[in-house]
Amino acid sequence: MSVRGDYLAGARAVAPVLVGIVPFGLIAGATAVAAGIPPFQAVAMSVIVFAGASQLAAIDLIGRTAPVGVVVLTAVVVNLRLTMYSASIAPYFRGFRAPAKWISAYVLTDQAYALSLTEFRETAPDERSRLWFYLGAATPLWLVWQVATAVGAVLGASVPEGLSLGFAVPLTFLALLFPAIEDRPTAGAALVAGVVAVAGAPLPFNLGLVAAAIAGVAAGTLLEMRAGTFPTTGHVPDDGESA
Q1: Do residues 50 and 163 share a domain?
Q2: Is a pLDDT exceeding 60 seen at residue 71?
Q3: Which of 5, 86, 215, 228 has a CA that sits 20 to 30 A from residue 76's CA?
């Protein structure tokens, strides 16, 4: 396939996912403004961070005037899963030049990772095809997310002060949680994180959320290791080698 064909293949694969990204982005933008973040800063946050779950967690903490350190630590913990994604998909990016790796790392998301890894394992594409399929899946997600959060921030700025959007944060996380529970490790991670979050609710600055995220990641990782499903780098067939 040509570069254009590889890119469009990735874009077609991710197209159904974009429908769910729009309301998520709208809520993120509107909630940021409701938490006291100016619209321009809300959009800038979306561009720089580009991680929906950690953005919502950070927005909630900012609205509660939590210390900067707590906000940053929470965002880092929530995004720890991306480290595992990176380790898992890295062998397929081994031959990329540094700029391509940097861009690919910046646009890494749950959806781009899952779609690309499935494609790489099933079709064993060459190096060029891997890069352009991945970018075809990842960059539409980035674009739709930025537009949706910008629109949400503009709309959020016009919402009356008496109408709180704070309820949108827990509802959004619940909507993300249940589809993600697919097996024992994810169920265990959710259960442990939920118990720790409830137990840690009295802690200041939402530190219970940080503790819950760390405990959930640890529990999920431990269960995956015991089940033998923890992501590994594995073997990447050379170009022309059968999978």
Answers
A1: yes
A2: yes
A3: 228
With respect to residue 147, please indicate whether it lies within any of the assigned structural domains.
yes
Note whether residue 173 is domain-resident: no
Instruction: Tell me, rounded to whole angstroms, the distance of Cα 146 from its chain centroid.
Output: 14
Closest by CA position to 31, among listed 59, 9, 12, 66 = 59
| Residue 137 neighbours by CB distance under 10 Å | 27
Q: How many CB atoms lie within 10 A of CB 131?
A: 25
Taking the C-alpha atoms of residue 52 and residue 109, their distance in angstroms, rounded to an integer, is 9
Q: Is residue 236 part of a domain?
A: no
Domain shared by 67 and 159, yes or no: yes
Residue 142 placed within a domain: yes
Residues 57, 35: Cα–Cα separation, whole Å: 12
Q: Are residues 105 and 19 in the same domain?
A: yes
- Tens of pLDDT along 186-212? 888 889 988 998 898 888 766 777 788
Per-residue pLDDT of 119-152, as tens digits, reads: 888 887 788 889 999 999 999 999 999 999 999 8
Domain span at 225? 181-230
What's the whole-number mean pLDDT along residues 12-31?
A: 86
Helix (H, G, I), strand (E, B) or coil at 59: helix
Total count of domains within the chain: 2
d(CA 195, CA 216): 9
What does 185-221 look like in DSSP terms, one character per residue? HHHHHHHHHHHHHHHTTTSGGGHHHHHHHHHHHHHHH
